[in-house]
Amino acid sequence: MMNLNTRIKLSAMMFLEFFIWGSWFVTLGTFLDKNLSASGSATAAVFSTQSWGAIIAPFIIGLIADRFFNAERILGVLHIVGAILMYQMYNATDVDVFYPYVLGYMILFMPTLALVNSVAFNQMKDAEKEFANIRFWGTIGWIIAGLMISYLFFWDSPEGLKSGLLKNTFLMAGIGSLILGLFSFALPKTPPKVAKGEKVKLSDILGLDALRLLKDKNFAIFFISAILICIPLAFYYQNAHPFLSSIGVEEPTGKMAIGQVSEALFLLLIPVFFKRFGFKITILVGMLAWAVRYALFAYGNAGELSFMLLIGIALHGVCYDFFFVSGQIYTNSRAGDKYKSAAQGLITLATYGVGMLIGFEVAGWITDTYKVADGTVDWKMVWIIPAGIALVVFLLFSVFFNDKQKAITEPSLNNA
After folding, report:
1. What whole-number distance in Å separates Cα of residue 225 and Cα of residue 210?
2. CA distance 336 to 32
3. How far apart are CA 78 and CA 101, in angstroms?
4. φ, ψ for residue 339 (rounded to 5)?
5. Tens of pLDDT along 358-415?
6. What's the CA gap between 60 and 142, in Å, rounded?
């Protein structure tokens, strides 16, 4: 087991990493509409910068983190530069000025998701047991950011939106990014996994050796499923905050933090599910939860059926943890010690890269398709479609993935 000092440092790292992301990304769709008067296509383009960043991330990880420099030092540099870009986004007055900065920021930020995992995993002897407890603090960071926006600063209130105060989210994120950038240099040393004298191959430099994992049929099925389930996920990121705001839900950012509270609680249940049910059942529960939550969004409202919306938000813990966090642990267990950073970059590519890029395009197209004459949106159809997609992915994974991973993870969990 790691010592207390290391545990505190890794927990603080995760807290800041997700505090930064939660400070601005949840409200981005509403900001683009209210502050920059962005069109639907411009909004989709801005959200897609996350995907382009994730697609580039494995190349940055494979080229630098696995070969030449300590992961914690790269993390520090990326967040310090990210703080500068956040300040430029704060000052932007139209979407054309905003876009290059958000694109640059996402190219730098998305690799940090793999880097924080790499730094954390490097300190662990039993990832199945220890990772969830560290990652838990990332969820707390996201929650605190949302609560500050709605209940401390009131940036997403009707008055705040009219005054353009939502742009302050970028200032808050920038301050967090600067703090994490400086703090990263005090994190546990995470040296390159590849020996300096080892012969350089193109596949090493680009992190392509992690693609060998796809020769494993089960990992390939997981990889494809991860891409497909991100199509419904994109609907949530792009549409949830504008949806809740448009139908009259008060303090939408704060209420969406319920999802992160749920995420924190269910993180603690992942080791139990791994032990009792194995990887396949755990991830299937996560997939099914996506279909259920979107059905609740489709039929709920801000009045007497508001409880349906709150339950849908609260299901975020099951949706995210049981698929994405379980997937990170599964990927870590399948990767050789030398290519853990590249493997985490690969799963980031599959989910936040390819899957989300497709998802944002589909979500934008569906939202535009179901806009009615007065400019409002038929939200019921916007949510029914991703619910159907999630259900199809659930059925495909349940049929084609053979659950052999349970036998691998169970012994270490039994030692908990």
Report:
1. 17
2. 42
3. 14
4. -120, 30
5. 999 899 889 888 988 777 889 999 999 999 999 999 999 999 998 654 434 433 333 3
6. 25
Q: What 3 state SS string does the chain have?
A: CCCHHHHHHHHHHHHHHHHHHHHHCCCHHHHHHHCCCCCHHHHHHHHHHHHHHHHHHHHHHHHHHCCCCCHHHHHHHHHHHHHHHHHHHHHCCCHHHHHHHHHHHHHHHHHHHHHHHHHHHHCCCCHHHHHHHHHHHHHHHHHHHHHHHHHHCCCCCHHHHHCCHHHHHHHHHHHHHHHHHHHHHHCCCCCCCCCCCCCCCHHHHCCHHHHHHHHCHHHHHHHHHHHHHHHHHHHHHHHHHHHHHHCCCCCHHHHHHHHHHHHHHHHCCHHHHHHHHHHHHHHHHHHHHHHHHHHHHHHCCCCCCHHHHHHHHHCHHHHHHHHHHHHHHHHHHHCCHHHHHHHHHHHHHHHHHHHHHHHHHHHHHHHHHCECCCCCECHHHHHHHHHHHHHHHHHHHHHHCCCCCHHHHHHHHHCC
Per-residue pLDDT of 17-53, as tens digits, reads 999 999 999 999 999 988 998 877 788 899 999 999 8
CA–CA distance, 131 with 118 (Å, rounded to integer): 11
| Long-range CB contacts (within 8 A, 24+) of 97-105 | 98/36, 98/46, 99/42, 99/45, 99/46, 99/49, 102/46, 102/49, 103/49, 103/52, 103/53, 105/49, 105/53
Residue with the two structure tokens 């499923």: 225
What span, in angstroms and rounded, lies between the C-alpha atoms of 89 and 48?
A: 16
Q: What is the pTM (predicted TM-score) of this model?
A: 0.85
**CATH number for region 4-191+212-414:** 1.20.1250.20
Start-to-end CA distance of the chain, whole Å, equals 11
Instruction: pLDDT band for 225, please (50, 70, 90 cuts).
Output: very high
C-alpha 234, offset from chain centre: 10
How far is the CA of 171 from the CAs of 93, 181, 235, 375, in angstroms? 14, 15, 26, 31
CA distances in angstroms from 107 to 77, 117, 118, 173, listed in the order given: 13, 17, 18, 16
C-alpha of 314 from chain center: 16
Reported as a single tens digit per residue, the pLDDT across 236-275 is: 999 999 999 889 899 999 999 999 899 888 888 888 888 8
